[in-house]
Known about the structure:
Elements: H1 2-14, H2 18-31, H3 36-48, H4 52-65, H5 70-82, H6 86-99, H7 104-120, E1 122-135, E2 145-160, E3 165-178, E4 183-196
Antiparallel strand pairs: 1-2, 2-3, 3-4
Helix pairs in contact: 1-2, 1-3, 2-3, 3-4, 3-5, 4-5, 5-6, 5-7, 6-7
Amino acid sequence: AQLVLLALGRQYFSDHDLKTAQTYFAQVLAADPKNPAALLYKGLIYSNNSELEDAATTFETLLHDNPNQLPARINLGLVYERLNREDDAIREYRYVLEQNPKSNIGEEAARRLKLVEKRIKGLFTTMDYHMVYDSNSSLSATPTNEYRTDLDLTFAFRYKAKNDLRYTLTWAPIYTTYHVGHFDFLTNTFTVALSSVTARRTL
């Protein structure tokens, strides 16, 4: 019966019907609370729903009894990244690489590890482009309809010291163009931040 429930849950998960999939995995876990496959998918559903703390707890529970469940480890690493727990994510990716470096999952762990290490000690950039319809009716006696575009760039250099202190220097220029009024301007923001993050072991 559990195999049938798992198969149905996987099918609904593949079809992106997470709510229905969750009901089947819940039935499996009601009978077998430590079922590895059901716990893995439960964690994936939490992650897909951005319930990150619940996802992390679920993957940690699974790995407590199944430390070599590599799909759970790499997904836990991804959740840690989203929680800004980069040191914990690095630990999970390194474990995957130690166990199976030549597999597809090992290659993905290596790729994520490189990105996360650069994020906490190195230069990274992001770019966003926005198109906005801007009504000027509240600002002018002669209202006009305006179309605005914003190009946002972020350049951040992060350095992690040995005592878990992190230094971040950020430059964030924003180039704004008003296409009807035919004018543009550039805004620059510079920030310096100091933070302290301590990794938490789960196993």
